[in-house]
Amino acid sequence: MAVGSAPMQLQLRATIRTKNGLCAPRKWIYHLSEGSTDLRTEGRPDMKTKLFSSACPGGIMLKETGQGYQRFLLYNRSPHPPEKCVEEFQSLTSCLDFKAFLLTPRNQETCELSSN
């Protein structure tokens, strides 16, 4: 996560593994709104994102809300984040009345973050 190229903008860069097993660079630009904690995703006017503070190194927690869905996501640079990070995430989601928890399997090495 970094400051964007314009005021009131944040940029999130990642390299994610796609369904076919290949690594693909991704970039999201979030727009901040005066007087709101919601971030608006560029190109996705229906989606709102909230970032949550976390003591977990190398990770972020966020909540996405779109048309007909809500989800909490924990992203971490490690394929196996420390147990305390997962517990913190589960505690947050439980407090906000989310009961289902899905942990995606990590069978491959992480993708390297590109420098672009």
Automatic annotation (TrEMBL):
Please provide, alphabetically and separated by semicolons, the GO molecular function terms listed in this UniProt record: lipid transporter activity; phospholipid binding
UniProt-listed Pfam families: ApoM
**Any idea where this protein resides?**
Secreted
Any one of the GO BP annotations: high-density lipoprotein particle remodeling
Q: Does the keyword Transport apply?
A: yes
**By its UniProt entry, which SUPFAM superfamilies does this protein fall under?**
Lipocalins
Instruction: Please give the GO cellular component terms listed in this UniProt entry.
Output: high-density lipoprotein particle; low-density lipoprotein particle; very-low-density lipoprotein particle
Give yes or no: UniProt keyword Secreted: yes
Sorted alphabetically, the keyword list is: Disulfide bond, HDL, Lipid transport, Secreted, Signal, Transport
Q: What does this protein do?
A: Probably involved in lipid transport. Can bind sphingosine-1-phosphate, myristic acid, palmitic acid and stearic acid, retinol, all-trans-retinoic acid and 9-cis-retinoic acid.
Q: Hey, which family's this protein in? A: Belongs to the calycin superfamily. Lipocalin family. Highly divergent.
Query: Its quaternary structure?
Result: Interacts with LRP2; LRP2 mediates APOM renal uptake and subsequent lysosomal degradation.
Name by which UniProt lists this protein? Apolipoprotein M
Look up and give the organism this protein is from: Lipotes vexillifer (Yangtze river dolphin)
Q: Which gene encodes it?
A: APOM
